[in-house]
Amino acid sequence: MKYLILSCILFSVLLFKSCNGQRTPSISYISQEQIKDIGGTVELDCSVQYAREYTVVWIKTGRSHSDYVFLSTGSSLVIKDSRFALRFDGASSTYTLQIKDIQETDAGVYQCEVVLSVNNKITAEVELSVRRPPIISDNSTQSLVASEGQSVVMECYASGYPTPTIIWRRENNALLPTGGSTYNGNVMKITSVRKEDRGTYYCVADNGVSRGDRRNINLEVEFSPVITAPRPRLGQALQYDMDLECHIEAYPPPAIIWVKDDIILSNNQHYSISHFATADEFTDSTLRVITIEKRQYGDYKCKAVNKLGQDEAKIHLFETVIPVCPPACGQAHYSSGKSLNGSSITASSLAILIALVYAFFKK
User: Fold this and answer.
1) Which member of 92, 179, 233, 329 has the lowest number of beta carbons within 10 Å of its beta carbon?
2) Residue 98: beta bridge partners?
3) How far apart are CA 341 and CA 344, in angstroms?
4) Can you tell me where the transmembrane regions are (predicted)?
5) Which of 122, 117, 125 is CA-nearest to residue 68?
6) Peptide bond between residue 230 and the one before it cis (omega within 30 degrees of 0)
7) 38 exposure class (CB count in 10 Å sphere: 0-12, 13-18, 19+)
């Protein structure tokens, strides 16, 4: 019985020694993911067990793990960069890698490795992310030209960490074609663009770092002319001038003509035509009928045409007894007369007086 007990004790001791001698090194602790600002400081800890006889190294890899940079071996720093430092705490078997004045290029994966043999190693890793302000990429939309009714896609991409959010706005916070004053996402699509959708759009990238970034995207919409005549009926007395006006909205800018009795009018002693562009899409056109004669009364047409279509507006000019002011004010087509007190009077005033007398005796 005694021999049996002694045998069991001896077996247990041998088994314990055998187990203790085969303990495999391990990494008991590695720092969690670190997120730091540019210019900051970070410390990465790696604690090992049963690794006194083995080499422990720190290695930096890119996010794709394609590039390796050896930073330290054992308690010695390998990299020659004053921003890096290494500490070893023998009591806890912890290797601490410190990086000061963090740069954007320091972002990546840091591996702590216990090298057992050429082909055998134990690895733990921690990722260091560096906050970076957003920068809108060059492959984002810069400007667009589309015809009315077409589909339009505007894209906006930005780099930075954390990943920036993209918000779309319009100039003066006008409503977006998608509805609402803002739209979130890298891609904004307008299914059927209208001329009212033209203008400046803002792509804003923000991730809470710095002030973010913004790009102005100009959307130009091509559309056929739309003509309005603010005064479709105008009256004026004989021998006086009258201005006929029409407002044209179109893009690209259209060709504009005035027509009477199917004859295209031009600048001469009877007519004066002027165009004034108030914006890329808006043009005001004025036809001045000079010293109106009987044959100049009637219907006039203002016509505009571009590659997408055409439009026209009709203005009727009729005869009145009393001159209309303006533009008749101050015109002097008749010889001047004298008032009862000897002061001169204008031809327009004289004409108005004659017309009033004529109207009185006609009753």
Assistant:
1) 179
2) 43, 85
3) 9
4) 342-361
5) 125
6) no
7) middle
Pick out the chain residues at pLDDT < 70: 1-22, 63-66, 328, 330-363
| CATH code for the part of the protein at 137-222 | 2.60.40.10
CA–CA distance, 184 with 187 (Å, rounded to integer): 8
Residues comprising the chain, all counted: 363
3 state SS of 126: strand
pLDDT at 161: 93
Q: What was the pLDDT predicted at 338? A: 36
Predicted local confidence at residue 23, as pLDDT: 83
Amino acid 10: pLDDT: 33
| Fold for the domain defined by 26-131 | Immunoglobulin-like (2.60.40)
3-state class (DSSP) for residue 91: coil
Write down the CATH number for the domain with range 229-319.
2.60.40.10
**Cβ-Cβ contacts under 8 Å for 316 (sequence gap 6 or more):** 232, 233, 234, 298, 299, 300
Q: How far apart are CA 143 and CA 193, in angstroms?
A: 15
Instruction: Provide the β-strand partners of residue 69.
Output: 60
Answering whether pTM is above 0.85, one says no
